[in-house]
Amino acid sequence: MSVSDAEGLEFADEVVTAAHVRYAALPGVTGPVALVTLDNGHDHTRPSTFGPGGLRSLLAAVDGIEAHDPPVAAIAVTGKPFIFAVGADLAFRTSITERDRLRPALEALGRLGHEAFARLGSGRLGDRKVPTFALVNGAALGGGLELALHCDYRALSAGIPALAFPEVFLGLVPAWGGTQLLPNLIGADRAVTVIIDNALSQNRTLRGPKGFELGLGDVLLEPADFLEEALAWVGRVLRGEIDPAAARAPVERGAAWAEAVARGRALADAKLHGAAPAAYRALDLIALAEAADREQGFAAETQALADLAVTGELAASLYAFDLVQKRARRPVGGPDPALARPVTKVGVVGAGLMAAQLALVFAHRLEVPVVLTDIDAERLGAGVAAVHQEIDALLVRRRISPDQANRYKANVTGSLTKDAFADADLVIEAVFEDLAVKRAVLAELEAVVAPTAVLLTNTSALSVSAMAAELEHPERVAGLHFFNPVAVLPLVEVVRAARTDDATIATTLAVAKSLKKNAVLVDDAPAFVVNRLLTRFLGEVLAAAALGTPLEEVDHALDPLGLPMTPLVLLELVGPAVALHVAETLHTAFPDRFRAPTGLTRLVEAGRRGVYTTSPDGARTVDPTAAAALLTAPTGSRTTSAPGSRSAASTAGTASTDGADGTPAGLDGPQSRSVPGAAAVRDAALRALAEEIHLMLAEKVVAEAADIDLCMILGAGWPFHLGGITPYLDRTGVSEAVTGERFAPPGVATLPA
Amino acid sequence: MFGSARGQLRDVVFVDGVRTPFGKAKGVYAETRADDMVVRVIRELLRRNPTLPPARVDEVAIAATTQIGDQGLTIGRTAGILAGLPPTVPGYAVDRMCAGAVTAVTTTASSIAVGAYDVAVAGGVEHMGRHPMGEGADINPRFVAERLVDPSALVMGSTAENLHDRFPAITRERADAYALASQEKVAKAYANGQVQPDLVPMAARHADSGWDLVTADEPPRPSTTLDALAGLRTPFRPHGRVTAGNSAGINDGATGCLLAAADVAAELGLTAKMTLVGYAFAGVDPEVMGVGPIPSTEKALARTGLSIGDIGLFELNEAFAVQVLAFLDHFGIADDDPRVNQYGGAIAYGHPLASSGVRLMTQLARQFAEHPEVRYGLTAMCVGLGMGATTIWANPHHPAAGGAA
Fold first, then answer.
1. Structure confidence at residue A671 (pLDDT)
2. Terminus-to-terminus CA distance in chain A, angstroms?
3. Is A572 an 8 Å CB contact of chain B?
4. Does B206 participate in catalysis according to the annotation?
5. Which of A567, A725, B66, B143 is most buried, most CB within 10 Å of its CB?
6. What chain B residue is nearest to A35 in terms of C-alpha separation?
7. Is A351 exposed, middle or buried (0-12, 13-18, 19+ CB in 10 A)?
8. Mean pLDDT of chain B
9. A573: closest CA among A615, A613, A610, A608?
């Protein structure tokens, strides 16, 4: 009698993974081998997952195997073509709409999974025990990998595209045995690599051969006839010709185990700064696995699952995962894709660093001729050479073949004159961020290219509509804003200007897809989405610095959010000059909320790339010149305002004025200036974000809050446990406090009410 | 011609042969691809002959009658790549309907003999469940308009009835008795473990009931009785003689063999199980296609300087009992002669069209090992649209072996 019935564990919309059983005869083996096939009835585009129905199907299958006559010699489990199983059905969690059902439901699912996997993996049939085998023919993630670990032996196909435990990436822990079984099989250090390190590194997965190297399987077989050869191997094991367990590396306990867990904690701290609980919970479980017996360990996993089920971090992560899987691939609000025009040749104006990165990505992904141009031969030559060097680097890293390298290098050329662009279907400019300069470039291009050639700008802050205003055909101008480094960050902001037509947007979206980027459609608002929010955010940090909060304190004030890097490190990455340009644009557009970037100006004038100096061993110390530049001068006409003083009420009104000597408004005088602490900085930054996002949505810069979140995840690397950002603002009450309303109703990206 | 031949023809040897278990159309292999079966056979041949470096294979010739879908796209080439052979190994596809695999063998063997190749993989596949005979055919109207061919020629079962007309001594009773014997011999061969070693187990998917491992032929009916056979209807002609019980069925399966120049086989440590002596193809009136093996055998014997009395073992394809009996009557061999189809035949095993030829050879090779006193063996089959295909082999286990054939 299974646990599940008592909990009433039901999920009406489950795509049930059936556990089919057939019996195979192996030579020299008495009794058939029960071959279980996991199959959800769909092809590989809908991989098999485990919900309550699938787990019950597994239990029923083993009941059938137990009753089979003649008695079986072994149980083997495999999957449908290309997929073994990819884990728990996440839709089960998101289907629960009542908050107080969450914990019991997930706890019940945890227990049902343990029951089903142990029932199969243990091989206990009545009073006998038979050997059990997982024949991992394809992708095995999370619960799928756990089922394989419950079996006595594992065969891996060299064709497996992905083996992983993504749970920690999603805000969960492997809760069907993974945290207990994996370290006891491959050692705690390798288990930490798989469960913590890989999960926190953008959900890195392992291919079959690499998984085999780590000890996840006992034999690695070629994909062409994997199942037949795996069953032949099963026969050899059953006849006693080989003993896979004897060949496994022994597991080190004691100090080695503790060191591994410590290494995991350091990794989690470095990435999360304690911002999300899942990784730390998984580490506790791995630590427990050293000595705990199975029942204890499994019970602890179930507890952890139940505890995490009711966290906002999980709700936000599932929402973010869904955004990245679905919305990122099909931009909302786009025109009919059939309107897209073919792009068979690309022009790039500019030959600086950004232009070179753009030329490379266009040449590599679109595989079309790319012509660069710049103002003088030397710059142009350097630009083309830089692209060719990057192509060579791809060849060295074996990302492209020698033939492809030849092709791309032949495709990337330079021309001092713009007539080389006459037959370009698309030209993108990445010249100096000055409206007059860009206008002139577009006008020159228009004289040369076809009337329907798409002209794109990579501007980060200038108005695309203004750039296009004087053209004869402004409708073919749009913005395509990439993020640095282009090779790493998948977001592109696709900017629809005032006169941009649907065909141009369709073409731009199609190009973005070919470039393997995720596009979000944005309106032609200053600094679009990512830069506007990062600047607003940075603004609060710099305001505190201006008031005298020590830079280290100010920079680490946001650590509890677990962002990929601190604001001032981000500033260094972006470059103060670029940040300054964006900040000035935003100050001009929205002076009430974006202060004049005096600190940044002084930093740039001082010739500083950032606020830290990094020693050769990577240690960062604050650069005193930089710190001084960011501090408000005690006299001077520049106005600054105190952080945290903005609220929905005051944006409509006038900015508070500061004293003529530059004293921040509302305070007594330089001697008793209050210096905001970390908590105040954090509070101010979050409130500023809430306010800004609210306004951006009202201005329809993007269609929905989900687009804001997608931008911050894909363009700034903001973590899943924040849901991008709006779920975090909702769950902490900041959005309601600042704007009077949530960004999304409870249950969408936060816990249900 | 080729320098490697050093001015004379080289001896060609049959090193190894394997096949998938055969299935009934819409049976075990209903959801299995034909090319996957060929891949399995190629990989098994290489696995069984580990001293052969895969890059030494000079050609992969695979026959299929209906070259569409999973049997199309130049299957010898695609299956070679899918099987993991290096891309430097070329491949092609062959069609001579039922004698496809035979033709793959004779063409590659000839290439080996003249010195163009050293080693080749030859075989055949037919997934008749997915590709019935005549799929995609577009018959030229001249056949009917000019009476080039009798309409009955297009239906194999009708040609078998025509054979009964031509040879009234071949009665339904004789045909049924022959069929029963075939079933019994297959059952005995399985019991003696004479079939299994040449089979390679094949995983077969069933989307709604899970993966299966096929380890034995699906078509045989070991519990057939003469009464049961006598009760079967004659679908090709009312009150006819040809039934489903005395013909081969509609089947799925793949076969393959490894051929090599005799000296290269020795160099690579490969064992020679048969040595090719000769072969012939001949045409006959399509409406009596079943007699095809008679002229092709006469031709092969004449060209090799052998007579029927020199042949100690026969593997004759049993498309229909009547055509085997016609052959035996012509050459004066008794219906139950022990030299003929010792392990039973296609009536029980099934006949996936283009693959069968290499099944016959593989069984002959095993029989050669069991009968070192036999010097020569012969395979023969009839072919749709009126042909016969015959191959003659010498037994390397015979004391006289070692000289050129």
1. 42
2. 34
3. no
4. no
5. A725
6. B211
7. buried
8. 96
9. A610
Angle, alpha carbons B287-B291-B295 (nearest 5°): 120
Band of pLDDT at residue A649, cut at 50, 70 and 90: very low
Confidence check: pLDDT of A669 > 50: no
pLDDT-based confidence at residue A8 (cuts at 50, 70, 90): low
Name the residue in chain B with its Cα closest to that of A24.
Answer: B213
Question: Any idea which of A644-648, B38-42, B328-332 has the lowest mean pLDDT?
Answer: A644-648
* pLDDT tens-digit series, residues A49-60: 999 999 999 999
pTM metric for this prediction: 0.90
> Is A81 in Cβ contact with B205 (below 8 Å)?
yes
Here the tokens at position B340 are 């003929």
**Which residue from B39, B200, B210 is facing A37, i.e. has the nearest CB?**
B210
DSSP class of residue A193? Answer: I
The percent of residues in chain A predicted with pLDDT above 70, rounded, is 93
Q: Which residue has the tokens 């970037």?
A: A597
Which of A403, A404, A416, A411 is CA-nearest to residue A345? A411
User: Which residues from B are below 8 Å from A228, CB to CB?
Assistant: 40, 200-203, 213
**Bridge partner residues of A372 (DSSP):** A348, A414
Q: Which residues in chain A have their CB less than 8 angstroms from residue B43's CB?
A: 224-225
Q: For A26-76, give the DSSP string.
A: -TT-SSPEEEEEEE-SS-TTS---B-HHHHHHHHHHHHHHHH-SSPPSEEE
From residue B192, alpha-carbon distances to B157, B315, B357, B367 in Å are 33, 18, 23, 13
User: A232 contacts in B (CB within 8 Å)?
Assistant: 201
B209 close to A (CB below 8 A): yes
Contact A22 B83 (CB under 8 A): no
| Helical spans, DSSP H, in B268-340 | 293-304, 321-330
Kindly state the average pLDDT of the residues A381-409.
95
C-beta neighbour count of A262 within 10 angstroms = 13
Determine the residue among B211, B214, B217 to mutate to test chain A binding: the one whose Cβ has the most chain A Cβ atoms within 10 Å. Answer: B211
Q: Is B257 a catalytic residue?
A: no
Average pLDDT, chain A: 91
Q: Which of B48, B381, B399, B70 is nearest to B197 (CA)?
A: B48
Distance CA B296, CA B317 (A): 14
Q: Is B84 within 8 Å of chain A by CB?
A: yes
Helices and strands counted in chain B (H then E): 12, 12
State the Cα–Cα distance between residues B36 and B130, nearest whole angstrom.
14
- A20 Cβ under 8 Å from any chain B Cβ: yes
Q: Is the pLDDT of residue A338 over 90?
A: yes
Dihedral angle over CA of B6, B12, B15, B16, nearest 10: 140
A692 Cβ contact list (under 8 Å, min separation 6): A532, A533, A536, A593
**Shortest distance, CA B190 to any CA of chain A (angstroms):** 14
- A666 — pLDDT class (breaks 50, 70, 90): very low
Answer yes or no: is pLDDT of A654 > 50.
Answer: no
Closest listed residue to residue A135, CA positions, set A241, A218, A54, A192: A218
Catalytic residue (one of B127, B382, B397, B398)? B382
In A, minimum Cα distance to B215 occurs at A25
Distances (CA, A) of A707 to A664, A704, B269: 36, 5, 67
Q: pLDDT tens digits, residue range B295-354?
A: 999 999 999 999 999 999 999 999 999 999 999 999 999 999 999 999 999 999 999 999
pLDDT in the model for residue A647: 40
A367 labelled catalytic? no
B106's tokens: 């004779």
Alpha-carbon distances, residue A67 vs A62, A63, A126, A159, A399 (angstroms)? 9, 6, 9, 35, 53
Q: Would the CB atoms of A225 and B210 count as touching at under 8 Å?
A: no
Question: Closest Cα of chain A to B379: distance in Å?
Answer: 30
